[in-house]
Protein backbone atom coordinates (compact mmCIF):
# COMPACT_ATOMS: atom_id res chain seq x y z
CA UNK A 1 0.00 0.00 0.00
CA UNK A 2 3.03 2.22 0.20
CA UNK A 3 2.90 3.70 3.68
CA UNK A 4 1.47 2.80 7.05
CA UNK A 5 -0.64 6.01 7.31
CA UNK A 6 -2.20 5.27 3.91
CA UNK A 7 -2.87 1.70 4.95
CA UNK A 8 -4.48 2.83 8.21
CA UNK A 9 -6.71 5.29 6.36
CA UNK A 10 -7.94 2.61 3.95
CA UNK A 11 -8.41 0.13 6.81
CA UNK A 12 -10.55 2.64 8.71
CA UNK A 13 -12.71 3.19 5.61
CA UNK A 14 -13.14 -0.58 5.26
CA UNK A 15 -14.40 -0.84 8.84
CA UNK A 16 -16.85 2.06 8.68
CA UNK A 17 -20.21 1.65 6.95
CA UNK A 18 -20.53 4.02 4.06
CA UNK A 19 -20.05 4.47 0.36
CA UNK A 20 -16.30 3.86 0.49
CA UNK A 21 -16.43 0.62 2.49
CA UNK A 22 -16.70 -1.71 -0.50
CA UNK A 23 -13.95 0.15 -2.37
CA UNK A 24 -11.66 0.00 0.66
CA UNK A 25 -12.23 -3.74 1.10
CA UNK A 26 -11.42 -4.28 -2.59
CA UNK A 27 -8.21 -2.31 -2.14
CA UNK A 28 -7.20 -4.20 1.02
CA UNK A 29 -7.93 -7.49 -0.76
CA UNK A 30 -5.01 -6.74 -3.06
CA UNK A 31 -2.73 -6.86 0.00
CA UNK A 32 -4.58 -9.88 1.44
CA UNK A 33 -2.51 -10.44 4.54
CA UNK A 34 -3.80 -12.37 7.51
CA UNK A 35 -4.12 -9.07 9.34
CA UNK A 36 -7.18 -8.20 7.21
CA UNK A 37 -8.96 -11.55 7.65
CA UNK A 38 -11.08 -10.46 10.66
CA UNK A 39 -12.14 -7.32 8.80
CA UNK A 40 -13.23 -9.31 5.72
CA UNK A 41 -15.08 -11.83 7.88
CA UNK A 42 -16.93 -9.10 9.81
CA UNK A 43 -18.00 -7.49 6.52
CA UNK A 44 -19.85 -10.71 5.58
CA UNK A 45 -22.41 -10.27 8.32
CA UNK A 46 -25.68 -8.43 8.15
CA UNK A 47 -26.41 -5.47 8.12
CA UNK A 48 -23.60 -4.94 5.59
CA UNK A 49 -25.04 -4.12 2.15
CA UNK A 50 -24.64 -6.68 -0.63
CA UNK A 51 -21.88 -4.75 -2.40
CA UNK A 52 -19.78 -4.82 0.78
CA UNK A 53 -20.52 -8.50 1.35
CA UNK A 54 -19.55 -9.24 -2.26
CA UNK A 55 -16.26 -7.39 -1.79
CA UNK A 56 -15.64 -9.43 1.37
CA UNK A 57 -16.35 -12.71 -0.44
CA UNK A 58 -13.98 -11.70 -3.23
CA UNK A 59 -11.31 -10.81 -0.67
CA UNK A 60 -11.71 -14.14 1.11
CA UNK A 61 -10.72 -16.00 -2.07
CA UNK A 62 -7.10 -15.38 -1.10
CA UNK A 63 -7.35 -17.20 2.23
CA UNK A 64 -7.27 -20.92 2.98
CA UNK A 65 -7.82 -20.88 6.73
CA UNK A 66 -10.67 -23.17 7.89
CA UNK A 67 -12.25 -20.15 9.59
CA UNK A 68 -13.10 -18.74 6.14
CA UNK A 69 -15.36 -21.65 5.18
CA UNK A 70 -16.96 -21.66 8.63
CA UNK A 71 -17.80 -17.95 8.47
CA UNK A 72 -19.08 -18.09 4.89
CA UNK A 73 -21.32 -21.04 5.79
CA UNK A 74 -22.56 -19.32 8.97
CA UNK A 75 -23.58 -16.23 6.98
CA UNK A 76 -24.88 -18.17 3.96
CA UNK A 77 -28.60 -18.16 4.95
CA UNK A 78 -28.63 -14.35 5.00
CA UNK A 79 -27.04 -13.98 1.56
CA UNK A 80 -28.99 -12.85 -1.49
CA UNK A 81 -29.19 -15.35 -4.38
CA UNK A 82 -26.26 -13.73 -6.21
CA UNK A 83 -24.13 -13.76 -3.05
CA UNK A 84 -25.03 -17.42 -2.51
CA UNK A 85 -23.69 -18.22 -5.99
CA UNK A 86 -20.46 -16.38 -5.20
CA UNK A 87 -20.18 -18.14 -1.83
CA UNK A 88 -20.66 -21.58 -3.43
CA UNK A 89 -17.98 -20.75 -6.01
CA UNK A 90 -15.59 -19.68 -3.25
CA UNK A 91 -16.26 -22.82 -1.20
CA UNK A 92 -16.05 -25.17 -4.17
CA UNK A 93 -12.55 -24.07 -5.16
CA UNK A 94 -10.63 -25.45 -2.15
CA UNK A 95 -10.79 -29.10 -1.19
CA UNK A 96 -11.36 -28.52 2.53
CA UNK A 97 -13.95 -25.80 1.87
CA UNK A 98 -15.76 -28.03 -0.65
CA UNK A 99 -16.01 -30.78 1.94
CA UNK A 100 -17.50 -28.34 4.46
CA UNK A 101 -19.97 -27.14 1.82
CA UNK A 102 -21.02 -30.70 0.97
CA UNK A 103 -21.40 -31.57 4.65
CA UNK A 104 -23.75 -28.57 4.94
CA UNK A 105 -25.76 -29.87 2.00
CA UNK A 106 -25.81 -33.32 3.58
CA UNK A 107 -27.16 -31.90 6.85
CA UNK A 108 -29.78 -29.84 4.94
CA UNK A 109 -28.26 -26.57 6.16
CA UNK A 110 -27.81 -25.57 2.52
CA UNK A 111 -30.31 -26.65 -0.14
CA UNK A 112 -28.88 -29.01 -2.73
CA UNK A 113 -30.51 -26.86 -5.39
CA UNK A 114 -28.18 -23.97 -4.51
CA UNK A 115 -25.31 -25.92 -6.06
CA UNK A 116 -25.34 -26.14 -9.83
CA UNK A 117 -24.23 -29.25 -11.66
CA UNK A 118 -21.26 -27.24 -12.96
CA UNK A 119 -20.19 -26.52 -9.38
CA UNK A 120 -20.66 -30.18 -8.45
CA UNK A 121 -18.49 -31.16 -11.41
CA UNK A 122 -15.91 -28.61 -10.35
CA UNK A 123 -15.80 -30.13 -6.87
CA UNK A 124 -15.38 -33.56 -8.44
CA UNK A 125 -11.90 -32.37 -9.49
CA UNK A 126 -10.88 -32.68 -5.85
CA UNK A 127 -9.62 -36.20 -5.31
CA UNK A 128 -10.83 -36.49 -1.71
CA UNK A 129 -12.86 -39.69 -1.16
CA UNK A 130 -15.28 -37.95 1.25
CA UNK A 131 -16.07 -35.31 -1.37
CA UNK A 132 -16.64 -37.96 -4.01
CA UNK A 133 -18.93 -39.91 -1.67
CA UNK A 134 -21.07 -36.87 -0.84
CA UNK A 135 -21.25 -35.80 -4.48
CA UNK A 136 -22.40 -39.26 -5.49
CA UNK A 137 -24.95 -39.34 -2.67
CA UNK A 138 -26.60 -36.08 -3.77
CA UNK A 139 -25.92 -35.82 -7.52
CA UNK A 140 -25.10 -39.35 -8.60
CA UNK A 141 -21.86 -40.17 -10.37
CA UNK A 142 -20.21 -36.80 -11.06
CA UNK A 143 -17.04 -36.48 -13.07
CA UNK A 144 -14.91 -33.37 -13.49
CA UNK A 145 -15.13 -31.51 -16.80
CA UNK A 146 -12.95 -33.00 -19.51
CA UNK A 147 -10.20 -30.90 -21.13
CA UNK A 148 -12.35 -30.66 -24.26
CA UNK A 149 -15.29 -29.31 -22.27
CA UNK A 150 -13.05 -26.75 -20.59
CA UNK A 151 -11.72 -25.59 -23.98
CA UNK A 152 -15.26 -25.36 -25.37
CA UNK A 153 -16.37 -23.28 -22.38
CA UNK A 154 -13.39 -20.94 -22.73
CA UNK A 155 -14.12 -20.53 -26.44
CA UNK A 156 -17.76 -19.75 -25.72
CA UNK A 157 -16.88 -17.12 -23.11
CA UNK A 158 -14.36 -15.53 -25.47
CA UNK A 159 -17.01 -15.40 -28.18
CA UNK A 160 -19.51 -13.70 -25.86
CA UNK A 161 -16.90 -11.22 -24.62
CA UNK A 162 -15.75 -10.36 -28.14
CA UNK A 163 -19.33 -9.85 -29.38
CA UNK A 164 -20.32 -7.57 -26.53
CA UNK A 165 -19.56 -3.88 -26.68
CA UNK A 166 -18.07 -2.62 -23.41
CA UNK A 167 -20.25 -0.28 -21.36
CA UNK A 168 -18.07 1.67 -18.95
CA UNK A 169 -21.14 3.05 -17.14
CA UNK A 170 -22.42 -0.42 -16.23
CA UNK A 171 -19.11 -2.24 -15.57
Written overview of the protein:
- The protein has about 170 residues and is mostly helical.
- The protein contains 10 helices and no strands.
- It has helices spanning about 5-15, 20-30, 35-45, 50-60, 65-75, 80-95, 95-105, 115-125, 130-140, 145-165.
- The two termini are about 25 Å apart.
- The relative contact order is 0.07.
* Helical content band: 55-70%
Shape: globular
Report the sheet with the most strands, covering strand number, pairing sense and barrel closure.
none
Mean pLDDT: 89
Query: How many individual helices?
Result: 10
Find the structural class using helix and strand composition.
mainly alpha
One letter per element, helices H and strands E, the order comes to: HHHHHHHHHH
Contiguous runs where pLDDT drops below 50 for at least 5 residues: none
Total number of strands: 0
**Radius of gyration of CA atoms, rounded to a whole number:** 18 Å
**Portion in beta strands:** under 5%
Report how far apart the termini are.
25 Å
Summarize the structure.
With 171 residues, this protein is mainly α. It has 10 helices and no strands.
Amino acid sequence: MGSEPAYQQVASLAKAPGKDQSWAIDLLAQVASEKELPLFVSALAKPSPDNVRLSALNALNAFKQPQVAKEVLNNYPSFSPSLKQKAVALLAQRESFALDLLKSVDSNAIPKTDISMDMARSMASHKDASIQKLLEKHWGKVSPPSPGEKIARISYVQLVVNRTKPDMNHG
